[in-house]
Amino acid sequence: MTSIILLSVFGIVNLFLGFLRSNKVLLPGAMLLLLAVFGANYADWNSEPASYFNHMLVVDHYTVAFTGIVLLTAIVLLPFSRSYVTSGEPNLAEYYALLLFSLVGAIMMVGYDHLLMLFVGIEILSISMYVLAGSSKRDSRSNEAALKYFLMGAFATGILLFGVALLYGATGTFALSQLAAAVAAPTNASLQPMLYIGILLMIIGIGFKVSAAPFHFWTPDVYEGTPTFFTAFMSTVVKTAGFAAFLKLLAVALPAAQGFWMPTIQAMCALTLLLGNVGAAVQTSPKRMLAYSSVSHAGYLLIGLVASKGIILGTNGTTSEAASAIFFYSLAYSIATVAAFGVLKLVNDHRQNDSYAGLNGLGRTNPLLAFVMTVAMLSLAGIPLTGGFFGKFFLLAAAVGQGYIGLVVFAVIMSMVGLYYYLRPLIAMYLRPADDNATPVPVDGIQSATLVVLALLTIVLGIAPSFMSGLL
């Protein structure tokens, strides 16, 4: 709760900082504010679970852990907005404020204990993303991305809200615990069709938010058209919050309806893995490849939902193996994705080339950028000694423990397909020569330090996964 209050207040304060003649104070100010919020969130770790807004929002270990991921992601992403500062972007204060407000929505999605709080969190996060997707007003691709994202997101939100209404009509409650009891002991069997349709519509609505197939069709175009900095935020924070909300909905509110939603999630998982990996393999742009890669990673996270069993509780309860696996995977994926998008942004800003050719010779001109990009790609591919390897291992192990062998085998095969497109940036950086007039990509000290930290975190998670795997 403290994090929500601080982010809301800091977001408003940040808007007033936009009246300053110089925007140079905005970047360090936003980073300090986020560090303060991260510290406040950490302080909640040792506190007893607490409910707010008439038990609509709960702050427990689950909430604090996933909130930590989204806050850490925002902190390490901010240094790559430096180009907006140096170019004198007139709307920078508004951009930072929208990012802070979107984090409020993400935290609500993580900590909700009431379906209306989930809806409010999704709307706060989504509306901020709609605006930021079209932040490059003179770029037609950015305008197209914002329009597509807004229109499709509005339809998905309507579907989600219709599902919430049907769930309430079938159970008479929005609260997760009461919803779980009502689903487990239905008082009127004639309402079951309404319940199942409501569950299906909610799966569709949240599936859109996390880029799960067949509701992923907006992802490549929106990711490609959105400015790279905001694309990185969208592909990490939104996905982490979405899956934390998805897991809580299925494992806390609807475990008794598992016989209905489990086949649906399994089908979505297999389709997402297939379309995400095959789609990424045929792309000619690293940014669009990462968009389809984001879809494929949604498929791996869906494996965690398939493997989820039991009810997720707070400090004094139990947490399923699948929940811990989703937490670790979200952390490893977010770190590697921010590193990859950070390198792409720096390279594209300098070379003005968003194809694989833009990475040619980067190993010679900028060894640090090439090394960080290599670590990020290897982690996303699930290569050992990186966090991504253990992220996939924990998810697949949880699925094997529940008997989903066929799905695990299919996921392993799709991981092998992923090796192809994740190695393409490495080939461009190290095996292809740069243009004759290519110069080193300028990288300032803060950006270099951030990239080094991201690479080290990825390697640490791959060498000592127990450092974070047992946190949740």
From TrEMBL:
Keywords associated with the record: Cell membrane, Membrane, NAD, Quinone, Translocase, Transmembrane, Transmembrane helix, Transport
Protein's membrane topology: Multi-pass membrane protein
Domain of life: Bacteria
Enzyme class: translocase
GO cellular component: endomembrane system; plasma membrane
Transmembrane domains' residue ranges: 25-42, 62-80, 92-110, 116-134, 146-168, 195-217, 229-254, 260-282, 289-314, 326-347, 368-391, 403-423, 449-468
Pfam families in the record: Proton_antipo_M
Any one GO BP annotation for this protein: ATP synthesis coupled electron transport
Function description: NDH-1 shuttles electrons from NADH, via FMN and iron-sulfur (Fe-S) centers, to quinones in the respiratory chain. The immediate electron acceptor for the enzyme in this species is believed to be a menaquinone. Couples the redox reaction to proton translocation (for every two electrons transferred, four hydrogen ions are translocated across the cytoplasmic membrane), and thus conserves the redox energy in a proton gradient.
Family in the record: Belongs to the complex I subunit 2 family.
Binding partners and assembly: NDH-1 is composed of 14 different subunits. Subunits NuoA, H, J, K, L, M, N constitute the membrane sector of the complex.
Protein name: NADH-quinone oxidoreductase subunit N
UniProt organism field: Hymenobacter properus
